[in-house]
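Here is the promised in-class demo. Please do not try to memorize the tokens; focus on the logic of going from shape to residues.
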């Protein structure tokens, strides 16, 4: 493969060329992306009705220096590939109201080239980039894969034979895939898939949709959690199925486009799609991890902890797994699980000599008063950033509340301020040789 030096999209690139060729969507512009604001906030929670044009606003160009974005139209998939015809948001192809036919980008066994000489991608707002809108991908986008680093980016093929992506890469020797949104029918262990990283339930906006995805072979699927795991050393965290696409067509420079064996190379129907769902709130029952003999239940959960950003507020049980015990040891307070041979750290930390173990729940407002014993995350403002951080013993403390203020509290023997939302209340305790009992 040929890779030019990648250049930040924030730097002006007027007349930028590589090997005599203009790079980016339009070589006479200031780069391929003009990001004009986020499309849908934290994570899309649904999609717009078919044929509708969701409303939306964007920052004023005079204050941001960016091209003003308008809510883009939504339309059915076209019968032929379309390229942007200019710089403006109104010169971009409409978003799709359903997944596109993978074969749209193929003619006579070859990827369909497009005239990209006048094209420039202006990212737009107002549409949820979920599977219903084909994840906001452009007509005839192919994912150009760099399997060694588990990275894939959407690219378009120009009439000059160059594959152009929004990272301003210029490539002529590629392995590329046409993809469709993941569904219960097409998502299987062993298939090739691409997914949006960083714990996103869908691309945050059109800019994210046209940026870096992860690629790999599906290793496992958890339909209850709505996640999938891909193989490879760079794919450590699970990805949301709603932000995953499966490869159905494959192309290698010099060859012909071929359907991937065992895959249905057709677009899924709207009723098959997996759309982003709001994360369910709630906390685990503290007594659920105690057996009929009053002893901790053995847990063999070996699933790696997630390190991508998550909402770990109390409403999500601080991202603790349902089997978590807080154990006082001579190494400090440790969040652990009970295994066949005793206490186990899910992060592989050394487990000190244990004493009393607690099962807890998030504190309620009426719990937070002087004298209440609590276990709390050590931060004055926010909880853990992710599941892995929730199991770092350095970030937990135990003690009795001394004072409670409007937005924080203090515990005995510690001068730090702790956020009210980070507190947990011990519900039951257990010592080896004893039966679990309620905290009085």
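The designed amino acids, position by position:
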């Amino acid at each position: 493969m040929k890779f030019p030096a990648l250049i930040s999209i924030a730097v002006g690139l007027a007349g930028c060329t590589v090997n005599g060729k203009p790079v980016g969507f339009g070589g006479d512009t200031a780069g391929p992306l003009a990001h004009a604001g986020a499309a849908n906030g934290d994570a899309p929670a649904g999609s717009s009705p078919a044929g509708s044009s969701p409303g939306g606003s964007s920052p004023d160009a005079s204050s941001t220096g960016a091209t003003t974005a308008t809510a883009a139209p939504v339309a059915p998939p076209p019968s032929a590939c379309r390229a942007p015809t200019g710089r403006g948001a109104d010169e971009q192809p409409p978003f799709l109201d359903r997944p596109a036919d993978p074969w749209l980008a193929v003619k006579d066994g070859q990827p369909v080239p497009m005239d990209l000489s006048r094209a420039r991608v202006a990212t737009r707002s107002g549409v949820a980039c979920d599977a219903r809108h084909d994840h906001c991908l452009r007509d005839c986008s192919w994912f150009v894969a760099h399997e060694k680093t588990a990275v894939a980016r959407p690219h378009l093929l120009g009439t000059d034979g160059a594959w152009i992506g929004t990272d301003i890469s210029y490539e002529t020797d590629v392995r590329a895939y046409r993809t469709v949104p993941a569904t219960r029918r097409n998502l299987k262990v062993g298939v090739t898939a691409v997914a949006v990283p960083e714990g996103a339930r869908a691309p945050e906006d059109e800019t994210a949709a046209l940026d870096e995805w992860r690629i790999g072979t599906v290793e496992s699927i958890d339909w209850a959690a709505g996640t999938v795991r891909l193989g490879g050393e760079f794919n450590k965290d699970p990805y949301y199925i709603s932000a995953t696409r499966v490869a159905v067509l494959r192309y290698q420079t010099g060859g012909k486009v071929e359907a991937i064996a065992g895959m249905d190379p057709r677009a899924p129907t709207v009723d098959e799609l997996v759309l982003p769902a709001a994360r369910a709130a709630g906390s685990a029952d503290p007594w659920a991890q105690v057996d009929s003999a009053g002893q901790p239940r053995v847990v063999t959960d070996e699933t790696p902890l997630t390190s991508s950003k998550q909402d770990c507020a109390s409403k999500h049980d601080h991202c603790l797994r349902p089997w978590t015990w807080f154990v006082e040891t001579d190494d400090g307070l440790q969040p652990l699980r009970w295994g066949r041979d005793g206490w186990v750290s899910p992060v592989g930390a050394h487990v000190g000599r244990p004493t009393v173990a607690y099962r807890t729940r998030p504190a309620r407002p009426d719990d937070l008063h002087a004298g209440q014993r609590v276990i709390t995350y050590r931060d004055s403002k926010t909880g853990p950033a992710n599941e892995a951080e929730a199991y770092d013993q350095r970030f937990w403390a135990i003690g009795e509340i001394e004072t409670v203020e409007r937005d924080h509290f203090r515990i005995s023997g510690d001068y730090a301020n702790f956020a009210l939302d980070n507190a947990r209340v011990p519900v039951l305790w257990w010592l080896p040789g004893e039966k679990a009992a309620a905290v009085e």
